[in-house]
Protein 1
Amino acid sequence: MQTLPKERRYETLSYLPPLSDAQIAKQVQYILDQGYIPAVEFNETSEPTTFFWTLWKLPLFNAKSTQEVLSEVQGCRSQFGNCFIRVVGFDNVKQCQVLSFIVHKPGSSRY
């Protein structure tokens, strides 16, 4: 067993290599398939214990396709490209956020 090098980790999926656009789309599709409500959030830093994330527009209550969600990610990225951007999934039965993952890091050309 090998110890991972000490480096900054970011939320769900942070121990994996950066997700490709197709992998991000699959994760968003999973959110929709589970009946979770997707939302896009952004912040200058990803430190969850110190800062709150800002919601980009309203949660996407009526989103039916991954493209709807990814369009909002792209809109957020074009306006706040210097911020971390994440997609979250809310469970309307449990009334809480059940998953989140970062889709954009500052200085990155990824989705």
Note: The chain has one domain: 21-104.
Protein 2
Amino acid sequence: MSNPVVIIGTGLAGLATANQLVKTHNVPIVLIDKAASIGGNSIKASSGINGAHTTIQEQQQIVDSPELFLKDTVKSAKGKGSEPLMDKLSKDSHLAIEWLQSEFDLKLDLLAQLGGHSVPRTHRSSGKLPPGFEIVSTLSKYLKDLAETKPELVKIQLDSKVTDVNIDGERNVTGVQYQDKEGNKHTIATSYVVFCSGGFGFSKDMLKRYAPDLIDLPTTNGSQTTGDGQNILEKLGADMIDMDQVQVHPTGLVDPTDRSAGWKFLGAEALRGLGGILLNPSTGKRFVNELTTRDIVTAAIQSQCPKDDNRAYLVMGQGIYEVLKNNLDFYMFKKLIKKVSLEDAIKEYNLPITAEEFAKDLTTYSTADKDAFDRPLVTKNFGDSIKTSTEIFIGEVTPVVHFTMGGAKINTDSEVVNKEGKPLAKGLYAAGEVSGGVHGANRLGGSSLLECVVFGRTAGNSIANSIKC
């Protein structure tokens, strides 16, 4: 093979594809991105990566299986998406975790149960780094080192926006067109291209086209998330599936000094997964199972909490701080979360309950045999003796545009397909948020990083097998 594989996007999908091609198959690659740095939205992922029937689960005596994970995923998808892709996601999930552990020495030794999951299966490492940052930085370092020592094998090209893919009359990929930051146009000759360019959650134009009711919501997406890959693939004739399925995450953190900001830090789902609760500002009471799927929690905030500012309070105890110290320290540094006593929380957040009532509610939540909202019981995190002086961590949250489930439909080999379900062109692949069919109407927390690894590695293996043929 004389020409390199071109991988568009440097989030985890692109990094997984690149590492699989280079590390396992010794296939040369060009990693290209319009941004000035590597990582995309993946670098900000804060809860972890899913895996079913993993060694870590077995060590912690958690019974899980790909079948149970598939059941949860299909239920969350609400009849949309592609079940064969969901089946592959769940069956390959433990392989993705093992690959990260064995090939890159990532621990991924802690577990959380996020919304919509039947058991704890979202893995992250014990240590100081958030999971997205840890995984992305580890995988990108390997490629950066190779780009220095073996430039014939790895080339990383940033500040370069892909504008088109060349396909000949026999439907073979022949090249990728891009524009550098000075506006100069170039073409890279290649027989294989993998789109890993992310979603479109930052683009008001795309949201107006596919989900106009969400256009006024803030977003967690970086400014690079504008659907460039979807637009190119649609023009080429890809089957664009579930493009109107845009996930609104219930817990974007509100900055009290800039409440109307259009961009929000995400309050990691692990905060709720490990025991955090949501309070209605107008009652000071819980109002939803915080561990149901994101769409249901979002709908509860939007229908039950004050409509003027579309917000709720996220409340956590010391036990969560001990597990997610780095997350909470960062949120407190940014003044998005405060540590206060129950008495002070009542005053500062104008909750319409007494401190004694607040303490009683938290005690009931922490000790009841059955939760009032049928939430799976989790480890106590507010302490054994909750008093009005007990300190909690509290912040305002609001629903935010977070993830676009739709995109160019792929098959289980990560090939982009046309409206007839056939490969759109020989050598054309996609992985990650640019693709569609993996999540249906609602994505489970922890499955975005997983999707990137599973289908990025699949694209790499499919290309390597095609080259050998």
Note: The chain has 15 helices and 21 strands.
